[in-house]
Design a protein that fits this description.
With 218 residues, the protein is α+β, with helices and mostly antiparallel strands. The chain has helices at 2-37, 74-78, 85-93, 97-100, 113-117, 123-127, 133-141, 151-160, and strands at residues 40-41, 47-48, 51-53, 56-58, 61-63, 66-68, 106-111, 144-146, 165-168, 174-180, 183-187, 193-203, 206-211. Residues 1-48 have low confidence and may be disordered.
Length: 218
Amino acid sequence: MKTTRIHLLLAATALAGLGAFAAAPAAAQGMQSEHMSGARPSHSGAKMEGSMHGGMMEHTKMVGGAPMYPSKNIIQNAMNSKDHTTLVAAVKAAGLVDTLEGAGPFTVLAPTNEAFARLPKGTVETLLKPENKEKLAQILTYHVIPGRLTEADLKADIKKGGGKAELKTAEGDPLTFSESKGHIWVTDGKGDRAEVTIGNVMQSNGVIHVINRVLLPS
């Protein structure tokens, strides 16, 4: 009887050890999954936003339902934004893809699909025609400023200019920047104003500021 009890105790101990051994890899895998997801809890318990790309953690901004990776260029990121399909189509039609994939740096004011939809009916379709490639390129390069200008840079220029900053675009004509209640506004050559709705979307070859209106030179 005593021998039987000893055998039972040994069997129970062995089973407990096997259970702990089997649970260890699952726990380790869970820890690894949490680490790889980029969702790390802060001291307050909230999760820090980040995305994995190329095996490295990047701080990203969401634009058009997609993360914008600072390690990717302007074209690579813009193509993933559901809010900028019209802009991407226009850039392709104007033959500016290679330019905006270049080293830059560029500051791009990126109108959303809704911004293009605010143009008079038929305008976008007309501009996308091959015979209007030069005109389209003129409008698009009016949304590009040489250099990497963050919101802080723009606000500093506005303050230096006494409330306004006039910056020359790649097209050649200037845009006027101003600030109101912490928001940056851009006035085009026709006097129409666009608001920067998402700023400081960092790129490997510059920065994107999302705007809610298409800008037109005078």
